[in-house]
Write a structure and sequence with these properties.
The complex is a heterodimer of chains A (about 300) and B (about 325).
Chain A lengths: L1 H18 L2 E5 L5 E5 L5 E3 L2 H9 L6 E4 L5 H6 L5 E4 L2 E2 L1 H6 L4 E4 L3 H12 L3 E4 L5 H15 L2 H21 L7 E6 L6 E3 L4 H8 L3 E2 L12 H4 L1 E3 L2 H7 L3 E5 L11 H4 L2 H4 L2 H4 L3 E4 L1 H5 L6 H12 L6
Parallel strand pairs in A: 3-4, 3-7, 4-5, 7-8, 9-11, 9-13, 13-14
Antiparallel strand pairs in A: 1-2, 5-6, 9-10, 10-12
Chain B lengths: L1 H31 L7 H9 L5 H34 L12 H15 L7 H20 L6 H25 L8 H5 L7 H28 L3 H6 L4 H23 L4 H14 L3 H25 L8 H21 L1
Helix pairs in contact in B: 1-12, 3-8, 3-10, 3-11, 3-12, 4-5, 4-6, 4-10, 5-6, 5-10, 8-10, 8-12, 11-12, 11-13, 12-13
Classes of the chains: A alpha/beta (about 300), B mainly alpha (about 325).
Chain lengths: ~300, ~325
C-alpha cells in the first residue's frame, strides 16, 4: 500500500513537473520560442495547421476559416469562434481573445502579422511543413505544446506506419512512370518531385517523369514544386499514367476525355490506354498533413491496383 | 515628288521583304528547335510522310499547331491594336482599353476557380467575357456618337471594376491561383489544332476587314468632322471597326490567355518603320505581330528548356527594351 502511494506521489510530482516545464522549439520561419507548457489558449490560423493540431489532441481557442478546410475538420470546429479568413485574420479579435500562442503558416499574410501581435504581447509561431517528416514532427510538437503527447504520438505513428506499408509493398516492383498535372487544360503545371504531392507520389512507389528536370529554387519548396507544362518533354517521357488535379473535389467520371479530345494529348500512350485519373484537390492539391498516410496508400493503389488485389 | 514616292515604294518593298524573310526564318527556327531535338532528316521525313513515329506526333500535333496558334494570335492582337489606335486616335490604345483583358480575364478565372469541372469552357468563356465587356463599354460611352475619350475613360473604369472582382477571387481562393497563372501571363503551352480552328476564322475575317477598312481608318485619322465632311458615316465605321478589333483580340485572348504586349507595341513598332498610312500599317502590323509571337514563343520554349516560360513574359522582357530603343532612335 505504502509502495503504491509512494509511486503515485512520484507520478504526481513528475506530471506536475512536466506541466510547468519550459519548452523550447523553433518554428519554420526560424524564430525560437521558450514557453511554459501545457498551453490551453492557442489560436490556429490555417487549415493544415488546424488539422495537425486537432490530430495532436489540441482544442483551438479560435481558428481562421478557409475554403479548403476538409469536412471532418470543419465538424470538429463546431462551436469554436472564428477570427476571419486565413488570408486576412482579424487581428483585433485575436488580441481580444488573449491567446498564449498563435499558430500560423509561413506565408506573407501571416508573417506580416507577427510583429503586430508581438506588440500586443502575443507570440506567433509559423509552421509550413514541406515534407511528410515535417508533418509528423509538427504533430508531435503540437502534442507537447498542448500536453497530449500520447494522442499526438498515435497520430504521427499512423502516418508513418501507412507509408512504411506502402514502401514495403512497392519495394521490389518495376516502377511505373507517372505524370501529375495541376490546374486546368488551358494552364497546366507539372508537379515536380520536390513538391509535397511529388513526395507523396514517390512514397507511393511512382516514378515522376519530371525527375530529370533540375529545380533551382530549393528553399520555397511548395511553390517551386510546379513547372509550366512542357508537352514535348511529356511526350518524350512517355508516362504510363497521367493524374490530374483540378480545383474541384468532385470525381468527374471521364477524367481522360479532356485530354483525349485534344490531338496534342490523344497520341500519348497513357491517354490511349485510358490511364488518366483525377486526384482530389482537397487531398493532393494542398498539403493533406494528417491524411498523408492515407493519401499515399490511395495513390499507390491507383498506380498499382494489381499489388493490392 | 516622284522621287519621294519611289523612295517610299522601295522602303515598302524592303520592309515587306525583310518581314517575309523574318517570318520564314522564325517558322523554320521554331519548327527545328524544341525540348526534344529532332534532326533535319527526321523533319524532312515527317513532312514527306516517311516518318510516322513519336517524332511525327511531337512535330505535327504539338510543335506545329502551337507555332500556328502563336502566329495567328500575334496577327490578331497586332491588327486589333492597330485598328484601335486609329479609331481612338490614341497611341496608348490597345485591346485592353476596350475591356478585352478585363472581361476575358474575369470570365476565364471565374471558370477556372469556381467551375473547375468545366475548364474545357475557358476559351468560349473568355471570348464571351471579352466581347460582352467591350459592348458594355461601347454602350456606356455612346452619346449621340462614340467619342474616343469617353470610350477610353469608360474602358478604364470598367476594367478597374472587373479587376476588383478578379483580385477578390485571387484573395479568397489563393490556394487555387497557381492553376491560373500561366493563362494570366499568356501561354501557348499545350495548344493544338483545336485552338487553331478556334482562332483561324477570326484571323481571316479580321485580315480582310482590316485591309478593306484601312482607307476608312485613314479618313478617320483626319478627325471626325473632316471625315464627315468627306462623306464618311463616321459612327458606322467606328462601330464596325471597334467590333472587328474586339473580335480579333477576344479570339486571340481566348486561345493564348492574357497576352498584353503585342496589341500595344507592334503597331507602334510598325508605325516607326513604315509610317502611319493604315494601308501599309495594317498588313505590316499583322506580319510583325506573327513574327514577334513566333520568336518570343521559341525563346520561351528554349531558354530554360525543359522549363517553359509563359510567352507573355518573354515578349515583354525582349520587346519593351527594343521598343524603347526604336523610340529613342526616332526622337534623336
Amino acid at each position: 500500500m505504502k509502495k503504491i502511494l509512494l509511486s503515485l506521489l512520484a507520478l504526481l510530482t513528475v506530471s506536475t513537473f512536466t506541466a510547468h516545464a519550459d519548452m523550447t522549439f523553433r518554428d519554420h520561419a526560424g524564430a525560437s520560442f521558450t514557453i511554459k507548457t501545457p498551453l490551453t489558449r492557442i489560436v490556429v490560423l490555417n487549415s493544415s495547421n488546424l488539422e495537425m493540431f486537432l490530430a495532436a489532441g489540441g482544442k483551438p481557442l479560435a481558428y481562421a476559416a478557409s475554403s479548403t478546410t476538409p469536412e471532418y475538420v470543419a465538424k470538429q470546429l463546431a462551436g469554436i469562434p472564428s477570427v476571419g479568413q486565413v488570408q486576412n485574420p482579424d487581428i483585433e479579435r485575436i488580441v481580444a481573445l488573449q491567446p498564449e500562442l498563435v499558430i500560423g503558416m509561413n506565408f506573407p499574410f501571416h508573417v506580416s502579422m507577427v510583429q503586430t501581435l508581438k506588440g500586443a504581447g502575443i507570440k506567433t509561431a509559423l509552421f509550413s511543413p514541406t515534407t511528410p517528416e515535417d508533418v509528423t514532427k509538427v504533430i508531435r510538437l503540437y502534442g507537447e505544446l498542448t500536453g497530449n503527447r500520447t494522442k499526438a504520438e498515435t497520430s504521427a505513428r499512423a502516418i508513418e506506419h501507412s507509408m512504411d506499408r506502402v514502401k514495403k509493398r512497392t519495394a521490389s516492383i518495376k516502377k511505373k512512370k507517372v505524370l501529375v498535372l495541376f490546374g486546368s487544360p488551358e494552364s497546366y503545371s507539372m508537379v515536380m518531385p520536390n513538391s509535397y504531392t511529388g513526395m507523396m507520389l514517390s512514397a507511393a512507389g511512382g516514378r515522376n517523369i519530371t525527375e530529370g528536370i533540375k529545380q533551382t529554387d530549393e528553399k520555397n519548396k511548395m511553390s517551386a514544386g510546379f513547372l509550366p507544362l512542357n508537352l514535348e518533354y511529356v511526350t518524350a517521357g512517355d508516362p504510363d499514367i497521367i493524374m490530374l488535379i483540378n480545383h474541384s473535389n468532385k470525381e468527374t467520371a471521364a477524367a481522360g476525355s479532356v485530354l483525349s479530345s485534344s490531338p496534342a494529348w490523344s497520341a500519348l500512350r497513357a491517354v490511349k490506354n485510358g490511364k488518366v485519373y483525377n486526384l482530389k484537390f482537397e487531398t493532393y492539391g494542398i498539403n493533406p498533413t494528417v491524411r498523408t498516410g492515407e493519401a499515399v496508400a490511395e495513390l499507390s493503389q491507383m498506380i498499382y491496383p494489381e499489388l493490392y488485389k | 515628288m516622284k522621287s519621294y514616292t519611289e523612295q517610299d515604294n522601295r522602303k515598302k518593298y524592303m520592309t515587306g521583304g525583310i518581314g517575309l524573310i523574318l517570318l520564314t526564318t522564325g517558322i523554320c527556327v521554331s519548327v527545328a528547335f524544341g525540348t526534344v531535338s529532332i534532326s533535319l532528316s527526321e523533319i524532312f521525313g515527317i513532312f514527306t510522310g516517311a516518318n510516322e513515329g513519336g517524332m511525327y506526333h511531337i512535330m505535327m500535333n504539338i510543335r506545329l499547331p502551337r507555332i500556328i496558334t502563336g502566329a495567328l494570335t500575334g496577327i490578331n492582337l497586332a491588327l486589333s491594336g492597330a485598328i484601335l489606335q486609329s479609331v481612338l486616335k490614341n497611341p496608348l490604345a490597345d485591346p485592353g482599353i476596350i475591356g478585352i483583358s478585363a472581361g476575358a480575364g474575369l470570365f476565364a478565372m471565374a471558370v477556372m476557380i469556381l467551375l473547375p469541372s468545366y475548364t474545357h469552357a475557358v476559351p468560349p468563356a473568355a471570348f464571351t467575357g471579352a466581347i460582352l465587356t467591350s459592348l458594355i463599354i461601347y454602350l456606356l460611352a455612346y452619346d449621340g456618337g462614340a467619342h474616343p475619350l469617353r470610350l477610353i475613360l469608360a474602358g478604364v473604369a470598367l476594367a478597374a471594376f472587373l479587376g476588383a472582382f478578379m483580385t477578390a477571387l485571387m484573395v479568397f481562393y489563393s490556394d487555387k491561383v497557381q492553376g491560373t497563372v500561366n493563362w494570366m501571363a499568356g501561354s501557348l503551352s499545350g495548344r493544338s489544332w483545336i485552338h487553331v480552328r478556334m482562332i483561324l476564322p477570326y484571323t481571316v475575317l479580321g485580315l480582310f476587314g482590316a485591309v478593306f477598312g484601312s482607307k476608312y481608318l485613314n479618313i478617320l485619322m483626319l478627325g471626325d468632322d473632316a471625315a464627315r465632311g468627306l462623306g464618311l458615316s463616321v459612327e458606322k465605321v467606328k462601330f464596325i471597326m471597334t467590333i472587328l478589333a474586339a473580335l480579333l483580340a477576344a479570339s486571340a485572348v481566348s486561345v493564348a490567355g492574357l497576352l498584353g504586349f503585342v496589341g500595344l507595341i507592334i503597331p507602334h513598332i510598325t508605325r516607326l518603320i513604315v509610317g502611319s498610312d493604315n494601308r501599309l500599317l495594317i498588313p505590316f502590323s499583322a506580319v510583325f505581330g506573327a513574327i514577334t509571337v513566333i520568336f518570343a514563343d521559341t525563346a520561351a520554349r528554349m531558354v530554360f528548356s525543359p522549363y517553359e516560360l509563359p510567352v507573355g513574359v518573354v515578349m515583354a522582357f525582349l520587346g519593351a527594351p527594343f521598343f524603347l530603343y526604336l523610340l529613342k532612335r526616332r526622337t534623336r
